[in-house]
Write a structure and sequence with these properties.
0% strand, globular
């Protein structure tokens, strides 16, 4: 999702420096005007929160259900980017 969002932003000459900035810019450029599905954007944000929790939080990993939600959403997100 991050690479796809970054690619779409680069088409507008926008190059965010952090994951949070990427999500913010993507929301402003594609979600705010209705170009991109808000529910999929929310999942994109959720994936970032999960990544931060696993990388920096106390959890050693995601549970299976959460991982499946993100993986299935990832496929839909990529389809929406096309």
């Amino acid at each position: 999702m991050f690479l796809a969002a970054n690619a779409l932003l680069s088409k507008k000459d926008i190059y965010p420096r952090t994951h949070r900035d990427l999500i913010s810019q993507f929301g402003l450029e594609f979600v705010k005007d209705g170009t991109f599905n808000k529910e999929l954007f929310d999942l994109f944000n959720r994936a970032q929160e999960d990544r931060e929790e696993v990388d920096y939080g106390l959890l050693p990993g995601l549970n299976k259900k959460e991982a499946e939600i993100v993986i299935n959403g990832d496929k839909k997100f990529l389809e929406e980017c096309n």
